[in-house]
Amino acid sequence: MRTWPDPYLPGHGDPSYGVRHYDLDLDYRLATNRLHGRATLLIEALEPLDAVRLDLSGLSVDRVRVDGAKPRKVTVKDRAVVVRLATRLDAGTSAELVVEYGGKPAPVPGPYGPAGWEELTDGVLVASQPYGAPSVFPCNDRADDKATYRITVTTDAAYRVVATGRLLASSARGGRASATFAEAAPTASYLVSLVIGRLVQTSLGDRLTLTHPARSIPSGSPFPRLPAMLDACEEWFGPYPFDAFDAVVVDDPLEIPLEAQAMATFGTNHLEPGWDNERLVVHELAHQWFGNAVTAAQLRDIWLHEGFACYTEWLWSERRGLASANERARHHWTILAAEDQPAPLTDPGRPNTFDDWVYKRGALTLHALRAALGDEAFFTLCRDWVTTFSGGNVSTADFIALAGRHTAVDLGPLFTAWLDEVDLPAPPA
């Protein structure tokens, strides 16, 4: 039986090679939901390779070339393309792999529901977390294989395109428009996003943009608070790790927002005022540090993303003069204490990965750590975590080791109780 890089994501990823750069040229017709793509991948063999397996879901492959030459064989399966090389690729050597493909894109099914390509009422949203990227392009779909990206999208001129990366160029001709984006920071495939819609852009100041339907923003909407949120996050966690942040609001309601590299996507329902929306905005912003710049190599360590993002909600609540972080912690501890804890936080189990208890227990773990270290050492640790591992991948063991270097206190019992044991510890003071 095949062993997958992440046991929580069977059927995704190949550890035998890495992708260093993706160049994607996408042509999309909204009226017929037809996509034609040309993907150029610069790959590096991590061991001797006779074949390259790519994740691609529900799309047909028209042509493949490896360093300009025809491969020995190409096999297209439901969610994968296997390219058998004409010449073995030695470990440490690179090759350019070009795949031309197309079809009617659709979401990728999986244990957490459909992900990736989603047709909206009037547009498209691609939220790739956790396994939706293969609905758009052939990739090595694993979180610990980060690459740089260049993405060009051509579609109907009446629509705006937003994609992962900084906008480099745009043009329009004959009712069609193209936009090219580039992301130079290492990016996991699940953090690549694409939005097509009838949208306008509003500057929220330095490095911040709100892309939204052409309508007035409701009074009291949380999005105008983004500059203050960014200032607070930089104070707590260090400099913002990317060039800019784009909060994209599609013209449909969404159940939940989702982060991507240097952007996050929200629904029209998230424009409305109220704490529940405000916390979600700062939550997705916090993911730029925790999840995007510093990325867990495996989903079992998702608390390193969601615990930090959830705890940022509590910090922001305190900064806003609402409930203190301690009050938020006590409230959510009381809720968790009334429920059975199904598994330890460091291995919550595939069905539980995105359950609310993982988010809240992760945040409570950080609150307990803050109580043990004190504010100065805790926030220094947070900044050091990002500085040390930005652009890379991490595990819970990495965090425990780094935390131990910030105090003379033995943190072993704290981490064992909150991370490794099932029973909920006493509430942190």
From TrEMBL:
Q: Which residues form the Peptidase M1 membrane alanine aminopeptidase domain?
A: 229-418
CDD domains from the xrefs?
A: M1_APN_like
Q: Where is the Aminopeptidase N-like N-terminal domain?
A: 21-191
The catalytic activity, as recorded, is:
Release of an N-terminal amino acid, Xaa-|-Yaa- from a peptide, amide or arylamide. Xaa is preferably Ala, but may be most amino acids including Pro (slow action). When a terminal hydrophobic residue is followed by a prolyl residue, the two may be released as an intact Xaa-Pro dipeptide
State the family it belongs to.
Belongs to the peptidase M1 family.
The prosthetic group or cofactor this protein requires is:
Zn(2+)
InterPro entries attached here? Aminopeptidase_N-like_N, Aminopeptidase_N-like_N_sf, M1_LTA4H, Peptidase_M1, Peptidase_M1_dom, Peptidase_M4/M1_CTD_sf
Q: Where is the active site?
A: E284 (proton acceptor), Y359 (proton donor)
User: Which leading EC class covers this enzyme?
Assistant: hydrolase
Domain of life assignment: Bacteria
Localization terms from the record:
Cytoplasm
- Is Membrane among the key words of this record? no
Q: Could you list this entry's UniProt keywords, alphabetically sorted.
A: Cytoplasm, Hydrolase, Metal-binding, Metalloprotease, Protease, Zinc
Keyword Protease found: yes
- Positions contributing to Zn(2+) binding: H283, H287, E306
Q: Under the GO molecular function aspect, what terms does this record hold?
A: alanyl aminopeptidase activity; metallopeptidase activity; zinc ion binding
How does the cofactor bind to this protein, according to its record? Binds 1 zinc ion per subunit.
- The name this protein goes by in its record: Aminopeptidase N
User: Among the record's GO biological process terms, what is one?
Assistant: proteolysis
Q: State the SUPFAM superfamilies in the record.
A: Leukotriene A4 hydrolase N-terminal domain (SSF63737), Metalloproteases ('zincins'), catalytic domain (SSF55486)
**Per the UniProt record, which EC number(s) apply here?**
3.4.11.2
Q: What is the lineage of its organism?
A: Bacteria, Bacillati, Actinomycetota, Actinomycetes, Propionibacteriales
**Major localization class:** cytoplasm
| A cellular-component GO term for this protein | cytoplasm
